[in-house]
Batch of 2 targets.
Target 1
Amino acid sequence: MIRKEVANLMYYSPILLFRWLNLALSSTYFIYLFFITDHSMLGWQFRYLTIWALTANCFSSALMLNAFPKVFTDSKNEIITSIIILNAAVVFLYWRLHFIDPKLINGDNARIWYLDYYLHLVGPVMQWIDGALIYGAFKKPLKSFKYIIILFASYTLWIELIVQPYNSIPEGTVTSGLPYPFLNNLNLIDRLEFYSKNMFFVVCVFFVGITATWVKKQTLNNK
């Protein structure tokens, strides 16, 4: 009996340590951003989708450690799934635009390399490992899809209806105030097209996750 308990402890300890590391890193960067953000801008750092993902990662990491009441744990799979998809969108959008021209997303601001790599690569990968590989997300697709739609619709409405009207920078050729410089070079119709294409990518990643989960389940059942 004792040997079995020791074996269980050895098995779960690396996962527990990984989750604490995940929480420590995401929380540290979350707090750090309050000190380097331009507080004269309405929305502060939360103007950016990346920071929505970072905030969600803090929440997800704590949720994995059972730090929240039952009202959240009842929807744990849906929450984790939507956060995995959010991180996928952040990574795809950031690096796609970065390789075209870093100024599309950073403007003339100097990059902080360790912050960039954590927010747009290391942090999301850690969430994918914990959420998809260890925990096993994508088990409640219909409810998860609802969370995903609400999440991305909320961000779009946030930047279009609140952030843009009350900020004057960055400035573009068409408008100003939207958090990413390239968005200010697009009219409303072009922006809506951009948002729609990104939503299509999100849906594709979501269905890849569902398919991979189903294949994994069938494989395990056939063993």
Target 2
Amino acid sequence: MQRNGFVTILLYVILVFLAVALAVLVFFNARLNTRVNEEMRLAEEAASATPTPSPSPTPTPNITPEPVRELESTYLRFAGEVVGHAALETQADYGEYHDFTPLFEGVVDDWQYADFAACTLVSNLSVDGVYESYLLPHGMVYSLGQCGVDLINAATDHAADYGLEGILNSLDRYALCEMDVVGIYGDEAEREATGGVVSEQIGNLNVAFLSYTYGTGGVSVADYSYALNIYTSDYMSDQKTIDEQQLAEDIQLAEDLGSDLIVCFVYWWDDTQYYTEPTDEQRELAEYLCSQGVDVIVGAGCKVPQPIEVITTGEEDAEHSCLVLYSLGTLASMYSDKYTNLSGAVELRVDRDVNTGEVFIANVSYDALYTVRPSDFSELDDDAFLCKVFNIHSYMETYENGGALEYRSGELYSAMQTGLQQLRMFLGEEYDVWNGGQELMLTVR
């Protein structure tokens, strides 16, 4: 009986176990079927859904690179005025000719670096050994040529001091020195045919030079008006009426020559002297010259520096811009007035685009110059020289580095520091070559 009871209990346990196992199997089978059905439903929905198109790749833009401009550069340099004071004649070293090169030895390297250099000479040239105010030996011209000057502007208010003979003698001396000159002429027919234009092939540029003075200091040139360019028609009286017709005709002749650049020297009125800012009359004349097609104006006659500016005239669709160097100051003289010992030697970099032919003034800069007169300094020997031109930056750098200087003076160094500040104020600090000059990209042709 006990055995039968045990068997019965065992069978009951086995049946319970099998029932539980079957229930678990049914449960998991149901879960599996549910999952399979869900996956099949999702698959059917995915199959019946509209497929999302794949994004098209963004095409790489076909950018044509900007062509590299092929430029040819020409360097033009303009210095201030050399005034023919009689005392300068004693400054020369005597030999085969009057040698004035020591006067300019501090700036020779700057001039010779340029492709072309020019300055203004306020003097006639002697042919008979007689030297006096505004009548210098031709050695001055020869020396300027040796220093790198290629062209001299001779249209000043002292050009007619010695009459037509003085102009013709000067032209003879210029020719002897193989120096080009603008502003004075010896042949009426040639002056009329050329409009007084001196055309120079400078590197890849054809440059036209013109030059005019306001008057003659009271000397009539009525019998030889062709010999000197004057921009006022009333030069013997008020000197205020601009001869616009003559200026326009001359500039047009410069245009007709196919010039790439037109440069005009202007010897300003005597009432502009010692002013470090241009007068209204100066600005009006500059605007007129610009409106007629002049690209660069180089002013003189003020004795002191005046600003560098860019002006523009004309309507929007026919504008013309011009670089105006109102005054570069006095390069060499015996003046002792304030600021007459300061000048700037301006350099223009003129670029031509080889492919398009476009011509533009790319950069403008100046070297700061100081004309030293030993009589102004207690530390310098009065007998050493009367005056000598120094590059301010070069002198100061050599002095600061303890380099060799022929005339080392703390007093002179201090004066040059002050002079540099003044020149930067007058000409513009941004144009100082030690600051890199000023990029302009001023299209002229």
